[in-house]
Description:
Keywords: Nucleus
Helix content: 55-70%
Structural class: mainly alpha
Organism: Lentinula lateritia
Strand content: under 5%
InterPro entries: ARM-type_fold, DNA_pol_V/MYBBP1A
Number of strands: 4
Subcellular location: Nucleus
Family: Belongs to the MYBBP1A family.
Number of helices: 57
Radius of gyration: 49 Å
Amino acid sequence: MSTTLPLFWHLSSSSKKDRLDASVKLISSLEHFQAQFEASSPSEEDEGSDEKPDALETLNAQDVSYSVRRLTRGLASPRESSRLGFSVALTELLSRIDTVTCSQIFALIMDATKSQGSMTGQEERDVLFARLFGMTAIIQSGLIVRTKPLPTSQSSATLASSFEGYEQVLTELLVLGEKKSWLRESAWWAISLAADSLNAAEVRWKDEAVHATAQHLFVENRIWSPEKIALALKLQSAFEEFNWRPLFSPTFKNPDLLSNVNLQTLALILKDSNNDGGDADAPKTAAAGGWKTQLHYVWDIMLDRLLNTSNAVNSNFPEFFRIVVDESLFSSTASPERKYWGFQVFQKALHLVSEDNMPMLFTKNFMRTWINHLSKQDRYLHKAAKQTVAEIQTFVQRNPTLGFALILQLTGFHGSQQFDKITKTKMVESIISTMAADDIKQYIAYLLNQANDGEVEVEIINARRRWIIDQLSALIQNGSIAKTGEWVESVLDWFVVNGLYVVKKKSEKSRFIGLRQIPKPQFSDELRHACRDKLLSCLADLTNHITTIESDNAKVKIAGVAADGELWVTKVLSTIEELKQDTKHVSSIAEIDEEEEVLRAKVREVVAKLKKVSGNQQEAASGTQLLLVASLVQQSCSEEVVSLETIELCTNAATREFSLDKVKKKTKKGRPPASALVDEEDSDDDGPEPIDAIVDTIIGFMEKSTAYMRSIGNQVFSLISGQVKSSTIDLILTQLETRDPAAEDEEMDEDEDEDEDDEDEDKPTNGEDAEDGSQSSDDDEEDDENENSDNEEVDEELRQRILEALSVNGIKAANEDDEDSEEEEYMDDDQMMAIDEHLAEVFRSRVNEKKASKDLDAQREATHFKNRVLDLIDIFLKKQPSSPLIVRLIIPLVDLITRSTTDEKQLSDKARGITRSRIGKAREFASAEEKKVEGGGGKEEGEGEEQEVISIFEALHKRARTERSPDHLSILSDCCIYISEVMLHAGMQDQVVLQYRHSLIDFISRKNSSLNVSFFQQFFRRSRTAAWNLRNDLLEVSGKAANLYRQFQAYQLIHDLLTEPPFDIHHEVTQYLQALCKTLLDVIFRTCDGSDDSLGLNASQMREVLRLALVGARQARKVAVAAEDAAVQIPQPQNVVATIWDSAAWTRATDLLLASERFKGAAQMCKQVVQIASAPSNTSQSQSKGKDEKKVNPKGSKESNERLMKEEEKKGGKEEGGEVRGEKKRTSRKRKTPAAGADGIEGEKSAPSLEGQGKKVKRKKVE
């Protein structure tokens, strides 16, 4: 017992893993004990009796018998999860040993679970659950139908199971189910397990057990419940030869419980509603227990039987689901709890149903309930409805071929065409995105077939057509759907046919779907307008859509084209032209005059020539082609037409830009005639640049409010950006200038007035016609005035103001009800003059309010337009990052960022984002060669461009010196760095250094300077070579700093400069390090002897000075090593480091620091400088090594330098780490080594930063 007792404790653990581990160990141990146990032969007296009290001990080992009793008693334990652990162990133990009988275990369970009158409610529940778990253990272990006899004497054979034991278990489970309604489902589930075991067993008493089961369940118990239906279905399928009709009647008319005649009765029972038999037609059902969220297991049995693939042909599932689920659980009178069950049944059936039966799930009541609870979040079953949406989406992802069938149900008769809009989901859209191309074609055909139905009312068919137009547009605008050419083109053609033409005669063989049937009734003007709008919006999306095309065995990504490489806009224009020629079947809704027709022909001719352009201009020609074709489509489809003058101007510009009218006739020498060349030159000189005219057309597109024109404009500019010139940039920047929209509107009004005056002058002024005309016009004006006066609503605010003005002057308002006064009172001249000013003020304020509102709208529209122009600038910066014209965009962008008002914050933010991403993070810059090519190679022009860049650079620096906003200063810094890179590429290093020198002097020497140290640090990091030229200025200006803070910021810049000095110019570095050493020593001496009170350094600031000295000393040593490796003859003594960094002077500085009470702590850092400066040069040590290395590697100077640099970095890292530790530890750990490397010192320390040093000083004072 000592080995098994500890295992029982873990059977009650709340961890499932611990319980299973304990069960495995316990059963293994008990099996081992039972295998070693030898049963004693029973005596004759024992053989005569059925069972003895010690029969369990007779055939089992002591540990086994104890464990059986212990596990049986433990089923009633309320501790943690003991019931689960003990029942699993008991089930497994009973299945492993064959020395117990069903009656024995049943008796043990009944004895251990006797109820007493003094039990509390919780104790009674524990006892009932113990019996239930015990009976289930008998059934699941197989003991209830075990045929193997017990290992007793050979003369007698006691079977482990018997009919009596089976009936005992069955009866007790029925009693449990009747005692507590909340136990009924579990008890009958255990009975169904017993029925399954009986069906699979080969016991002699099988038929007797079946009859007994039927007797107990259906004869003695006439009350029906879901559990009884589940058991009846199981028994009926297991024992088909049994006569079930008399047992099921009269409740069920057909022995097949799932037949159509039984569905109404079945629905009442499954609804789990109480019926005590008062209704003669309704079956008597069991009392309903507490409602459970978990769906009853009977549904799994019924759905498995109805949707079984072998019985799918004869299945009546549609009728079952309609009656039992839709008209019962989803009925209008059903409770929310029953509807919740209905959602669960739907989710279960969705994954089991076949493709043919799947539409049958979306029944009327289900769809109504589902849509209602999806539409608002406060609905009771909103989460259940959302879970159903998730299940359907998962189902479609696994079965994409069923997507079309699902959409038909969601948008069909029981659903809603606006399903996504009503339910606030994107379910239809998500299903469509998973559909294949063939399914999408099928869906489009389904939509178009619904567009023509003359049997319904006009309002209904118009609403349906509006929905169809929206659905077709949504297909193209859905980014997750592959845009295959066939179905997209069919949708666009349908929009063209029904938006621009009237079908007169059908053509069944036409490639246009819209011509295969005459719409009945014809499309209304509103629907035609919707078709045109959706056509343009679809073209806008397709223009931005990227298509991968295979060209010359390579895949190329092109925007706005179909799979065959042709522009979508071109396809639409071809459809328009083709239908225009087909006058037999269609007629255009808009007439085209002769002038426009001539222009269209010219555009088509130019487009055909643009397709033949190749080489570097091919991309720009493609963009121009898109612009011309899109203009014609806009002309046909939108009310905001592009003027014919604009189209003609753009066409001529395209001809000039790409030399489409170039004379091909040549002389004998192969040259064109001189006259032709002269004419061509003259034509080029007339008017603006061709590319400017094209871009001006694009800007005109940006002014429009349609997404189509904006998308076309952006795409065209992206393609022609390589042809942009300086004048084009000026044209774009002109649009960003700040102008008064109100003044522009006034000018436009004046122009309109002048035009009206001109028209008035052209009217006839004599004769009867003129008189009649004037008379009729007067009559029309009077009628208009009367209509306006009748239709205008009274402005109460204006009326109150007028009444107030009248009352101030003693005049009362007229009262319609006052009929007593027969005479009217007239105002005299004085009264009229008195109220004149008041009325004038009222009307003046009214006019000012309208004007202010108009100005606000104009300002808002101007801001939106500038936003669109900024899109063009962003496109240019993205497509042409190395263009020299970018420099001209910087000042206008900075103006938008720094000088925009609060109303233009969106504009300012957009300009800031473009500047940071495109200019601040630029990696490509214009080179000198590109500037020469852009400028044409002229010397004067090149000098002018250089001067322009210099002036822009100078202006940016001047702004930075006075800019108070840190954010704006960061933008200016990015722009300065970008232009400095451009200037450095162009060889203008002196001008770059000059401007940074002026800014540096302003920053260090002027106290109110707006610059900060990061403005220069970014320049130092990006342009090391140019920044090196500021080294002497830094030293000089540090002595003239406005204050100590600026002085130490200058030291910080020197530190950044010395991080990576140019070692290839040894003389300059050496001289600068000597000057730095002298400057730092002067600061230390003046501070320690008190000769200069203006310094007044504290301990942390002195450490900062010494930190810079350490950096300089290390760089001096690196310079010496680099010079030696490069074999440079430096005219200095043999110890180069000591000469550059005067060790004697630093020794005196150390003594002064030690003598100062304030700087004593910093003396250790000064000693490190002395040690570095006085360390012996590595010249003598490296000469012999250098010779050996050169023998092996003749080019070993570089490798030697890298090796020494790495050693230095390692030592420098140790030194930096050493400085972090305390002053005492640093002094005690510093020691000299016999072989001291290039430094001559191990553990050399570097000073920390200013901030860290200040903290250390404070800690030291506290200590």
